[in-house]
Specification:
The chain has about 300 residues and is of the alpha/beta class. The chain has 2 domains: about 1-120 and about 275-305, Quinone Oxidoreductase, Chain A, domain 1, CATH 3.90.180; about 125-250, Medium-chain alcohol dehydrogenases, catalytic domain (Quinone Oxidoreductase, Chain A, domain 1, Alpha-Beta Complex). It has 10 helices and 17 strands. The strands form 4 sheets. Strands 3, 6, 7, 8, 9, 16 and 17 form a 7-stranded mixed beta sheet that branches. It has a 6-stranded parallel beta sheet with strand order 12-11-10-13-14-15, sandwiched between helices. A two-stranded antiparallel sheet has the order 1-2.
Length: about 300
Amino acid sequence: MKAVRLHGRGGPEQLVYEDAPPPEVRPTDALVRVRATGITPTELDWVETWESGGRPRRFPIPGHELCGVVEEVPAGAPVSVGDEVYGLTEWDRDGTLAQYTAMRATDLAPKPVSVDHAAAATLPLSALTAWQALVRHAGLAAGQTVLIHGAAGGVGSFAVQLARHLGARVVGTASPNNRGFVGDLGADDFVDYTATKFEKVVSDVDVVLDTVGGDTLARSFAVVRPGGTLVSIAEAPDPGRARERDVRAVFFIVEPSRPDLLEISRLVDGGRLRPIVSAVLPLAEARRAYEQGLGGHNRGKIVLLVDT
């Protein structure tokens, strides 16, 4: 099969489109013929990309979110051969930048019927992260206020829409050229982080979702009300600051979840959640896709189409 593999640690220059052996299909796995896969630009140097069970892999295949067609399934699987599915793979095994991927059958869900494969491929990591951040970890409720950093990005663009669906007041931070875009997604207020420090104009929010980390995360404590929640997907918040401010601080890494994907499909097909495709490129141009992604300021997700 054709796949994109990493030939060394570094950046996109280490990606090679080439022939690769077929994936190992474990007893609980489904084999999926990949139609489209979303990329996560920062994953090229993750430890999880390079190791499986604590052992380095020589030429790992990156990518963790796919949309495709089931080729093989184990007995009792919740999906069948021929089903159009989407899902998030485990982190410590070869990924989705390939014609075929093996992954746990129980992590797959039916693809939303209202969107194509490219749009569906933006969902398994970013929309799942936004859902788990706001629903599972923050418990965001109608009438609350949420501040979303990076509101135009892959996770942020879904988080704005989900928060709106949940009935929250939404404040989004992004660069000035994304003001209209973030507003169209459902944000009530917008902060241009290049011109205004958000803590000067935002206060007493119930929830902050941080997708940026660093100084943005540190400054976010000042805007959360006592008893509120700060959720970060970029790095762990300072527990000392959390205690001082009486804020519940959470860092998490998204987990594969068929039940969550079923709910996301319902929202997409109901017109409540819109996938945002930044660009679509063929699998053979993965290096260019990652370079574009690492350049920053992309709206939504970059997707690779796989010719099978």
